[in-house]
Design a protein that fits this description.
Blueprint lengths: L1 H41 L2 E2 L7 E2 L3 H6 L3 H31 L7 H9 L6 H11 L6 H8 L17 H10 L3 H11 L4 H9 L4 H29 L3 H6 L13 H10 L4 H25 L11
Antiparallel strand pairs: 1-2
Length: about 300
């Protein structure tokens, strides 16, 4: 009798638990699981959105791997990821070290460097569109004021040679979030190790390389992974600053922007879904590679 009572209570608890979890489960299924499965199916279909999808097998993938714009967008994304991610990590790390000093009023400076990272992407992009304007932007106005030769003044977003470097420069402006992560990590670096090394005659650079960086390696690795994933999905800034065109001369047509264009401008949803799955596989493989090799350069406190 006691066993049956317990069983009934367990069933009631399970039912109540599922009832409380149902909003999350419905949201997960309707807003995440279904779109993922649907996009996988549509990647094998010709789906112009205004008509029902038609199964075409691997046709989208065959077209994709023979599309020169696909490779151009992939190259643009790789260029951005290879420059923006390490540059952002280095800048944020140096800022964290600088702002980790015990100086009066340091909280004000920390806030100043963090604020840009919480500015909405669209608003920040509009601001940088003005700063980088080749004719009347603030940056070029300053360069002209110091009498820099005309041929040395960048065209920024109007010049295909400078458009991607301009976006890389813009990305450094928003590294405040990473800076906070590094600041938190620096608090955990044992001060006694620095003191012992200083007594032994180690220079500041030696203490940085042999103590600070090893203890900070998990934080650096985390931002490396997240930075790569974010760079692979780079979209908003490129869309706003080029009016959704990815110019000039496709120099800022990043992978996610080209995916968006195919889905919502060219009405080729099946082709866009195929692109999305290729992007997913690239991100997955590169992330797995980073984790596979992380044991060589990531040190966790307590390890020998």
């Amino acid at each position: 009798m006691k066993k049956n009572k317990t069983t009934t209570t367990d069933k009631q608890n399970l039912r109540n638990g599922l009832l409380f979890c149902s909003p999350l489960l419905i949201g997960l299924g309707g807003l995440t699981l279904y779109p993922v499965l649907a996009s996988f199916y549509y990647s094998f279909c010709n789906y112009p959105m205004l008509k029902p999808p038609v199964w075409v097998g691997l046709a989208n993938y065959k077209t994709l791997f023979s599309d020169p714009v696909f490779y151009k967008s992939l190259g643009n994304t790789a260029y951005y990821a290879a420059l923006a991610t390490p540059l952002g990590i280095i800048t944020a790390f140096l800022l964290a070290i600088l702002l980790n000093q015990k100086v009066k009023g340091m909280a004000v400076f920390r806030t100043m460097f963090f604020v840009p990272s919480i500015v909405p992407m669209v608003a920040g992009s509009v601001l940088w569109l003005w700063l980088l304007n080749a004719d009347y932007g603030l940056i070029n106005t300053i360069l002209r004021a110091i009498h820099l030769p005309t041929w040395m003044i960048p065209g920024w977003m109007a010049d295909p040679r400078w458009s991607k470097p301009a976006l890389v420069l813009m990305s450094v402006w928003g590294v405040g979030g990473w800076m906070l992560i590094y600041l938190a990590g620096l608090q955990d670096v044992p001060t006694e190790l620095h003191e012992a090394a200083e007594i032994d005659g180690a220079s500041a650079w030696q203490r940085m390389v042999n103590i600070t960086i090893p203890f900070m390696s998990p934080h650096l690795f985390f931002t490396l992974v997240m930075g790569f994933i974010g760079a692979a999905q780079y979209f908003t800034q490129a869309f706003v600053m080029t009016n959704g065109k990815g110019g000039p001369v496709d120099s800022t047509r990043f992978f996610s922007l080209y995916l968006f264009q195919n889905a919502f401008m060219y009405w080729k949803m099946g082709y866009a879904c195929a692109m999305a799955w290729v992007l997913f596989i690239v991100i997955l493989l590169f992330t797995l590679l980073l984790f596979k090799t992380s044991a060589r350069y990531v040190y966790y406190g307590g390890e020998k």
